[in-house]
Design goal:
Elements: E1 3-7, E2 13-17, H1 22-28, E3 39-44, H2 48-59, E4 63-66, E5 76-81, E6 89-90, H3 92-95, H4 105-112, E7 114-118, H5 131-139, E8 143-147, E9 150-154, E10 164-166, H6 172-182, E11 188-192, H7 198-209, E12 213-215, E13 221-225, E14 233-236, H8 241-253, E15 257-261, H9 269-277, E16 281-285, E17 288-292, E18 301-303, H10 315-321, E19 328-332, H11 341-348, E20 352-356, E21 359-363, E22 372-374, H12 378-388, E23 394-398, H13 401-404, H14 410-416, E24 420-424
Parallel strand pairs: 2-15, 3-14, 6-7, 10-11, 18-19, 22-23
Antiparallel strand pairs: 1-23, 1-24, 3-5, 4-5, 7-9, 8-9, 11-13, 12-13, 15-17, 16-17, 19-21, 20-21
The structure holds ligand EPZ.
Ligand EPZ binds near residues 133, 312 and 313.
Length: about 425
Amino acid sequence: MDKILVRGGKPLKGKIPISGAKNSALTLLPCALLTDEPLTLRNLPRLADIDGFQHLLNQFGISTMIAGSRPEDFGRVMTLSATRLTSTIAPYELVRKMRASILVLGPMLARAGEATVSLPGGCAIGNRPIDLHLKALEAIGAEIEMAAGYVKAIAPKGRLTGGTYTFPVVSVGATENVVMAAVLANGTSEIKNAAREPEIVDLCNLLVAMGASIDGIGTSHLTIQGKDRLHGATYRVMSDRIEAGSYACAAAMTGGDVELLGAKMSEMDATVDALRAAGVMVEESADAIRVKANGPLQALTLETAPYPGFATDMQAQFMAMLCMADGASVLTETIFENRYMHVSELGRMGADIETKGRTAILRGVEKLTGAPVMATDLRASMSLVIAGLVAEGETEVSRLYHLDRGYERLEEKLQLVGADIERVGAD
Ligand code: EPZ
């Protein structure tokens, strides 16, 4: 199993190209199901989760062609063609490896009038139920059956009717699933208390480019007039605001000065506000965001919330960044019930963090010390790399499959800005 070795103490300086957004790509890919014409997606990140999703779509008979790109390029162009489907079943052995597979449920149901998807099960950060996905689909006409660890959704008479659904809590994935189902319904759908994440806007923009009718894009109230069919499109995936925020924390923590190429300030206001509150200089240029350390970091009080609040996907990275800040920081994780798996590993590097339920209290320490640490989930693994970039000595991060799910060529990007980091195969 590969490991990452990082030796701390180097301020990050230079430019980092930001890749296409994983959490947008994972909802744009299943849109290929919604048309029998080719869908071309540009700026797709090279990530394990994208490869996994491609493999899942191939199972349904969807052809996927990746346009030639030089090895040194970041991102890929993929053309997907769902001319004819050979299956409507997403099997357990694929879904269990990647819970985002549940995002085929809505579009497959819309396209084929039925869909059967293995229940995704939980993951390290929480049990991750899908009840809201199912309730939203039922509200627009689906009939749902559960059996043998699978959920089967059927559109009586072969087509969804449309309808109205108000989410009791904000859910990114459930919003994505119901939007992808509603665009082909035989009627209008009103989705209220919908998630407003930039990735949802990216999804709606792609669907409109394919001929869908969606009003209220970017708001929590979406009105979707179903169409009889959608056509193909060529679309560029948005930049990854979480990857950009992660590298911003690394630059801030190492006393660096980094330009994040392709990052958009408008998609990461809460992250930028938090960085500035910690004393970091952040400014936007034409197609980049510059992040420059500006003296010692200040402690913060942060609470995660649905967009436009402070992103739960940034919590672990800020926790690492604040380990050496002046004073005590308080972080509260309101979205997932178990998203502090990185706390014990950061503690092994000398961080002073105490958790009480969903709240973590960090007391700034003078230094961190490199140690062998273990990644437990995607964002936790990035927090360990960030800590290693400033820790004295060498940090060895294992279980990199977590990291490879969400960060394209991480060590190469950090080497671009002077980090002393390398990936080694385990002996
Ligand atoms: C998406 O997960 C992201 N994943 C997550 O990013 C992100 O943390 C999360 O949204 C919140 O922003 C992708 O986009 C692939 P939710 P999702 O439905 O859709 C509960 C990363 O690190 N809930 O908004 O699964 C749920 O348990 C990943 O890139 C239900 O109760 O998140 C959670 O407490 C991690 N019932 C809350 O809602 C449901 O049916 C928010 O979950 C669905 C969700």
